[in-house]
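We were asked to recover a plausible sequence for a given structure. The inputs and outputs are reproduced exactly as logged, with field labels preserved.

PROBLEM: sequence recovery
POSITIONS: 143
GIVEN STRUCTURE:
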C-alpha cells in the first residue's frame, strides 16, 4: 500500500513538471506574440519577425506535446473514479471536483499553446508577405 502511494506521488510530481513546462511555453508564446504585434520601426520589426520565424520550427514541439497532454487528460477522464453517490465522503468529493477543475485548466492551457503557436506563425507569414509586396511596389515605382 505504501509503495503504491509513493508511486502515485512520483507520478504527480512528473505530471506537475510537464504542466509547468507547458505553462512557461505558453507564457513565452504570449510574450513573442505581443512583441511581434507591437508597433515598432520597420528594420527592428523585420529582424524580429525573421528571428521568430527561425525559431518557429524548433518550437513546433509544443503542438505534439500539447496534443499528447490532451490525450492524457482524456484518458484519465475516461478512467477516473466517479464520486457522485452518497457513499463518497466530503473529502473524496472535494478531491474529485478539484481534479475536474485541474483537467479543465490544463485543457485550456493545451488549447492556448496550440492557438498561440498558430497565431505567431500566421503573424510572421503576414509580415513577410507585406515585406514582399512592399518590395514589388518599390520595383514598380522605379519603372
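RECOVERED SEQUENCE:
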Amino acid at each position: 500500500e505504501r509503495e503504491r502511494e509513493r508511486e502515485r506521488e512520483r507520478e504527480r510530481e512528473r505530471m506537475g513538471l510537464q504542466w509547468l513546462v507547458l505553462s512557461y511555453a505558453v507564457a513565452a508564446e504570449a510574450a513573442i506574440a505581443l512583441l511581434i504585434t507591437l508597433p515598432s520601426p520597420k528594420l527592428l520589426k523585420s529582424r524580429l519577425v525573421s528571428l521568430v520565424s527561425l525559431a518557429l520550427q524548433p518550437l513546433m514541439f509544443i503542438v505534439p506535446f500539447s496534443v499528447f497532454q490532451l490525450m492524457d487528460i482524456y484518458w484519465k477522464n475516461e478512467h477516473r473514479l466517479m464520486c457522485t453517490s452518497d457513499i463518497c465522503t466530503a473529502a473524496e468529493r472535494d478531491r474529485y471536483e478539484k481534479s475536474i477543475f485541474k483537467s479543465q485548466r490544463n485543457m485550456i492551457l493545451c488549447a492556448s499553446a496550440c492557438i498561440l503557436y498558430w497565431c505567431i506563425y500566421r503573424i510572421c507569414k503576414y509580415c513577410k508577405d507585406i515585406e514582399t509586396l512592399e518590395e514589388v511596389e518599390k520595383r514598380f515605382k522605379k519603372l
